[in-house]
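Collaborator request, handled under Task 6.
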Amino acid sequence: MQSTDHVIVLIHAPDKGQIGEDALADAIGAVAPFSPELRWLDEQGREACEIAFTPPPESHFNARSLEDRIRGRLMGLPIDVAVLPLGGRRKKLLIADMDSTIIGQECIDELAAEAGIGEEVADITARAMRGELGFRDALVERVALLKGIPEEAVDRVIVCRITISPGAETLVRTMKANGAYTALVSGGFEPFAEYVAGVVGFDCFQANRLLQENGMFTGEVAEPILGKDAKVEALDRLVKKLGIADADVLAVGDGANDVGMIERAGLGVALHAKPLLRKLADARIDHGDLTALLYLQGYRRDEFVTDGE
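Structure tokens returned to the collaborator:
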């Protein structure tokens, strides 16, 4: 059997069926001249598989073009497609955004909604995530609207509004069980990041600090404000600390604030992301949950570490 140096990873949306024979045939047919080899990553449920292949040098192989061609063949099926190098797939550092990535909400939007100013703040957030506003200006503008909100509102938001994204704990547990270090890096706020990091099991976290006085938020955020550059700096700091290379890093996020770390990481993943990030990431997950990041690294379903294991 010849050696292979690339894989097509197919990941079906959870609980929405299986990867069918027609979808397999379409994906395999896209690389038929390159002697593809099918491997099931979820053999029982047929939720994920990979197709290994080696294009000859003269083929002018382009991974993104191949992904787009396969997506076109799948004709809207809820199946994510990624074409990745086979070597060095299992990463040694996971660095993850928090809002709308590890959790299903934007914390500042939820805090504002708790205070009755949700619509105004959410509009600013959406513009920032699309890259229409600079992160710093958008954060300062939104935080100013929080002036006078009692600090205890954070606890109510955590209890009543924050949900952990499907697959987050399995992703972190599995990577840690295989020797990886995990970091939560957020442009949001410390109380939320501390809570989420503890629940999910991250090794460390960083986030911004809301200033308060006499139990009320002042409408200001402590300096330095941690945004896109701070996420890249965290990646650089952890790579140096762990003695690894950028190629050993898996970064995941959803918005413009994550571009820097997504571009720097060996595997940058856009999760249910805005268009800007989807264009720049090494892989995009539009249908799957966070366990898709394990499949991208070649983990089989029977290797996943789930709750209580």
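The cover message to the collaborator said: "Residues 68 and 298 are 21 Å apart (CA to CA). The first strand starts at residue 6 and ends at 12. Please let us know whether this matches your experimental observations."
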